[in-house]
Amino acid sequence: MTQLETAMAILMNTFDKYAAGEGKKDTLTKAEAKTLLEKELPGLIKATKNPGEVDKLLKGLDFNGDSEIDFSEFVVLVASLTCACHDRAPKK
């Protein structure tokens, strides 16, 4: 697999791993999403000075208002964070 194919597989596997915890197997509950962020993006959580910001972020991801995060909503989060990191990273 190419690097991009591997990255896509990792995204899918990571989402599925946390979505399988409770509720529907194809969505993340708020608790599952919070666990995913804490385990997979610990630097982001530590950098957040206000714990309420994480809840605000999770609520903002729920575009369709169903109180769950589906894969498409998860990918938007990852893409947004990736863009933010890319913009701040020094260019080689």
TrEMBL record:
Classification via CDD domains: S-100
Residue stretches making up the EF-hand domain: 49-84
PROSITE patterns, per database record: EF_HAND_2 (PS50222), S100_CABP (PS00303)
Molecular function terms from GO: calcium ion binding; calcium-dependent protein binding; transition metal ion binding
GO cellular component: cytoplasm; extracellular exosome
A UniProt-annotated Pfam family: S_100
Entry keyword annotation includes Repeat: yes
Keywords associated with the record: Calcium, Metal-binding, Repeat
InterPro entries per record: EF-hand-dom_pair, EF_hand_dom, S-100_dom, S100/CaBP7/8-like_CS, S100_Ca-bd_sub
Protein name as it appears in the record: S100 calcium binding protein P
